[in-house]
Design a protein that fits this description.
By secondary structure, this protein is an alpha/beta fold. It contains nine helices and ten strands. The two termini are 39 Å apart.
């Protein structure tokens, strides 16, 4: 059930663009009618993967519920040498996609609106669960991610928050934060959206040339090879995936790991059950991540 301030039932198909917290609250919380509501948090440059999140949110809350999409390129998530300034920004196109797939409100604040006192001195820590894999490759990334997710959950006050399974470690950390810190929200994971040839959709794919895009297919091919070896145990999964990447041109591997989705640590060789096979690699100018769920026997 919806809690606290309750947004009214959907009255118009027009998605409202808001830039401040005050504007967002006026658009999303105009009265106290009890309907469910959901949020989809993004950094913009929306594509079909984000559309799937918005569509899932709309299905969850129904036509009488309310769906908000946040568009904010969070500087706390970018480390030294990363692509904060180069990160694609396309608010007009984002607003059109959000409207097409059922969002009521887009909240696209400035950095000053989200961090009015400057860079926050107090932040959430991802702890041991955020130390490996993406956390090791991008120090501080998950602390920044959790800090802004917590802020946006407070601002939007949703019943449901939708995140893509493509960012598996992020999803695991958000779920753990919500459980550990008693946030009153249900976190919903949405399956990765892929191109017909298997490439996982990503805002960073637009940086790839045609040749680099073809090289990037090695990531999903490696994951699918590992998934197919699941019945033969963890070592076979790792070997099958590594075999694809070892012969891939133009792919600089960061990590390939078979992970326990609850603790986000590498599984032992005698592990059985549900696991996540995750990969990160540099292809051309883009650092890409992907994963797939696997049943290991």
């Amino acid at each position: 059930m919806a809690r606290g301030r309750q947004p009214k039932a959907k009255a118009t198909p027009t998605t409202v663009l808001t830039r401040t917290v005050t504007e967002f609250e006026a658009a999303f919380w105009p009265d106290e009618q009890p309907v469910d509501n959901a949020v989809v948090m993004t950094m913009g440059a929306l594509h079909a993967g984000h559309a799937a999140l918005i569509r899932a949110a709309r299905k969850q809350v129904g036509q009488d519920g309310r769906v908000a999409v946040t568009v904010f390129v969070n500087p706390l998530q970018f480390g030294a040498g990363e692509d904060l300034e180069r990160y694609p920004r396309s608010l007009d196109a984002d607003l059109a996609l959000a409207q097409e797939f059922g969002a009521d409100v887009v909240f696209a604040p400035t950095t000053e609106e989200v961090y009015p006192n400057g860079e926050p001195q107090v932040r959430l820590s991802a702890g041991p669960m955020g130390a490996g894999f993406e956390g090791a490759s991008r120090p501080g990334h998950f602390d920044g991610m959790l800090t802004v997710v917590a802020k946006l959950l407070h601002i939007t006050d949703p019943d449901f928050a939708f995140f893509g399974e493509k960012d598996a470690q992020q999803l695991a950390l958000v779920r753990r934060m919500v459980a550990d810190l008693d946030f009153d929200v249900e976190i919903v994971g949405v399956p990765t959206v892929r191109e017909e040839d298997g490439l996982a959709l990503s805002s960073r794919n637009r940086f790839l040339s045609d040749a680099e895009r073809a090289q990037a297919l090695a990531l999903s091919k490696a994951l699918f090879a590992g998934r197919d070896a699941g019945a033969q145990g963890p070592k076979a999964v790792r070997d099958a995936a590594a075999g694809v990447l070892d012969t891939a041109d133009g792919v600089t591997l960061d990590y390939l790991a078979l992970i326990d989705p609850d603790s986000f640590t590498e599984v032992p060789d005698d592990f059985q059950g549900e696991a996540v096979l995750a990969v990160a690699a540099k292809v051309g100018p883009a650092r890409l991540i992907d994963n797939t769920g696997i049943i290991v026997r």
